[in-house]
Amino acid sequence: MEQEVERYRKPTRILHWVHAGAFVILFLTGLVLFIPQLGFLAEDSWTRVFHRIASVIFIVAPLIYIPLNWKATLRGIKNAFSWGGADIGWLKAAPRYYFLADEKGMPPQEHMNTGQKMWWSMVIVFGLIFVITGLIMWAFKTVAPAALLQWMVLIHDVAFIATGCMLFVHIYLSVAHPLMRPLRTGAWNSMARGKVSVEYAKSHHSKWYDEVSKSVEEKS
Amino acid sequence: MADKAILYDATKCTACRGCQVACKQWNENDEVIPVIENGVLAKNWGSYENPPDLSPTTWLKMRFTEVEAGGKVRWLFTRQACMHCTDAGCVRVCPTGSLYHHELGFVAYDKDTCSGCGYCVEACPFNVPRLEHNVLTGIAKMDKCTLCTTPGLDRIAEGWEPACVKTCPTGALKYGDHTELVTEGNKQVQALRANGHSNAYLYGDKELGRLHVMYVLDDSPAVYGLPVAPRISAATIAWQDVIQPLGWALGGLTIIGLGINYLVAREAKLTRELPGKKEE
User: What's the gap in Å between the CA of B41 and the closest CA on chain A?
Assistant: First the structure.
């Protein structure tokens, strides 16, 4: 059997899928207010009920994860906001890679490559913005000054547009991009089963693979 | 079709509140005894107004303003209800199209399709729409004056006056062609000015692209406690005219971009792979 290396632990994968499910419900029930032609689907507030149920999951899931996985949380947040020269190199090489399947010029990457870091830092920042603006609208509808509520809606909308577009990119790169297929060889596996092949780890995240293999050697 | 409008002459109004009652009666809006459970606070704030505020079942309320000037107290009345703006903030922000312009210019409302988002409540420069909502679940419905165009209770389609106008005993409320009422209102304002009310003003002629409810005032709008030069809020414009179109464009471009990427990358992958090893 092919040698594999663990990429995401089980708690992290569970958090990912619970949060992803909640976000998709939030996205779709928000989309009906975003596109006028879909407005009729929001009639009688039922989409708002689902939006709120999903938002509770969206808030509670990380709150359960964080204290139980404190180290992983800190490491994850640190990763999201550590940017360097390799990221510039990645951004330069990315178009050739994603359009022309040309891997040359791709600098070695850590646990997360630049694109993944972009999405992951957006999830943290916009996630917080969503929660803060959303809770204000939930709790203080008709009570808070109208101008404040209007700006909350606007900021919520900006976060929706930014993360919504990136959600398409994220799903596309995970399951649909020609280079990510067949699924068992690529990124899909890392979140589905938590493991990737050593070959994939070496080619896509060589810095991370070096660290992991070193620490395994030290332990043994 | 030529726009219709309501002209309210504050100098002829005795604040009998017959219009309030007629509005409730015609539109089948029972009074809710204002208690805290209904989300309406029964606050006595020292006014003769009753009920204390507009609500989902009170679409029209006489506003009483007490003003002291030159040692005299004046008791001023205005008709607080939807002003049926031509440039209507509520119509701009309504995501379901429940608020829309009637062919005669009013802001009509289809309650059945309302999602209860409350954006109109926040966007209204006159603080008119009222939201009945459950704070926990978010199930909500807005309500406001429809100028008697509510489906099933549509007086306008029958060629009748709105209920409030029909019942007004002093002739303070008139319903008719918008342009004719502007002329009539201006005539009344001129008469008031000639009589010493130098600040007399026709409210609604210039505001928000012309309101379909206009007031003849014997003093400036500020004295009556009305918004002077009401405007569509900056947030409404930034949101509806900038962020929303930008969002549609970005979303569309993202999907198109990913589609192009798929076609290009699939081709590139196939040419790179050894011949005969084609997958899928």
Answer: 12
